[in-house]
Design goal:
The chain is α/β, with parallel strands linked by helices. It is 30% helix and 26% strand.
Length: 321
Amino acid sequence: MTHAIVARQSGGPEVLELAEVDRPVPGPGQLLIKVAAIGVNFIDTYKRSGVYKVQYPFIPGSEASGTVEETGDGVTGFSAGDRVATAEGLNCYAGYALVDADKALPVPRGVDDFTAAALPLQGITAHYLINSSFKVEPGHTVLLHAGAGGVGLLLIQLLKARGATVITTVSTDEKEALAREAGADHVLRYEGFAARVRELTGGAGVHVVYDGVGKDTFDDSLAALRIRGTLVLFGAASGPVPPVDPQRLNTGGSLYLTRPTITHFLQDAQERRWRSDELFAAVADGSLKVRIGARYDLADAATAHTDLEQRRTTGKVILVP
């Protein structure tokens, strides 16, 4: 048996309960991981609340780090005792979790368990955003929302290393300080940000907007783009965006709009390793800093969800079994 957080129905954070469940058994091609730390992400709240449909009872969580306890039939390349992380695990809000071996990411020496759990989903998200959704080049000007969030702080660092000018939005003075520490060139509040972006860019607008906020920022994100600019809508922290008339993209300057999801940027083991190896190497050599803003005991998962949804957190939120 093992402990896990279980939601028996959709709803608010209060539906998350600590329960005793059977310890999972690895099937062919799977690893059983003794979980050391768990990453908390907005997608977990979407599934818990019913925005994304899941079957109940439901154990949230796809991101974790830990040690391989057992391997299923046919597994090669991993053995008991190996340290791994994943953004694509199964039911990770638990003491033990399963991950397909081809979705497990080796954790190098010098990267601790908490950092290893904090990096995969948000780090890979940041990686595909600037390399695949819209390839940022030196000299590009970028607008990034929620610059003090987990993805935001990683994105700022990666964008500056790429040679971009980074404009970001935050909601408080504390978050502004964090965004500036990460390297942001300009830090704005959300109110009136499109007009300020125009001022900062001499009226031209930015090459790309990375928007994980959604409904509350979408219209002004489009307004902040230059001609043929790209809006990468990768989340909906404030709620989903209403249906969009494609004519808006025309009148805005022949704009591009994309709504990526991480699954489509982890198509095979080679792509996973490319993204994760670059990220872990940057963490190991000190060029990429991962901020863990809060740690909670596994039993306090409901509090973690509440704080995340109320935007009380900065950096990454971690659960510890």
